[in-house]
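[job 4471] stage=fold_predict status=RUNNING
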Amino acid sequence: TPAQGTVGPLTKTKLNQLYGSTTISTTFYRNLTIGSKGEDVKKLQQLLNTDIATRISATGAGSPGNETTYFGAATRAAVIKYQKKYNISPASGYVGPLTRGKLEGR
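[job 4471] inference complete, writing structure tokens
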């Protein structure tokens, strides 16, 4: 189909096929929020980056392959997108028990 300047369902499906096929599994042992640091934050970013709809960033810090160990504003924004996508309320950007459970596949 011709490019229209928006990312519709077909484009999202194709992008996820091309870039979102990696499966990452992890267990989160603590809640995460702005200012959190550690390898678990990096795993969170990697998980969020597997879906074009919840990607941290397209380029630079936090982008696929450039995930960091710091939970900043871009990570919070991506967590909010994830929470909205999966109807986790409130969609606050805080990774607490409900969000951790969904991320872990529970």
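[job 4471] summary: The two ends are 37 Å apart (CA to CA).
[job 4471] exit 0
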